[in-house]
Design goal:
The protein is an all-alpha fold. The chain is built from two helices and no strands. It starts with 16 loop residues before the first helix and ends in a 32-residue tail after the last helix. The mean pLDDT is about 75.
Length: about 100
């Protein structure tokens, strides 16, 4: 006995639409990242020595007038914490 399979019950949909939507989203995402990360506005603006105020970072820091103050030395032996010492539990008896 053979069954007569008609084409009426088949869907004409191919199922490729989600793939193309995902491909379009990925393409626009990659292009967007490339434009944002490598745009012409990201290029560093190098100033010639005549325009720049200081040639090095050290010169700029010294011109700002920082003062360096050493910290107070810590004692080599610090006192214990205030309050009573914690009580240790009694050792349990060992079995014979």
């Amino acid at each position: 006995m053979t069954k007569n399979r008609s084409l009426k019950g088949r869907s004409d949909r191919h199922g490729g639409t989600p793939f193309f939507v995902a491909l379009a989203v990925a393409t626009f995402g990659v292009l967007g990242m490339l434009i944002v990360d490598h745009g012409s506005w990201k290029k560093p603006k190098v100033q010639p020595a005549v325009v720049a105020n200081y040639a090095t970072t050290g010169e700029a820091a010294r011109a700002a007038g920082p003062t360096v103050t050493p910290t107070e030395p810590q004692p080599s032996l610090e006192p214990g914490p205030p309050g009573p010492t914690p009580v240790h539990p009694v050792n349990p008896p060992t079995p014979p």
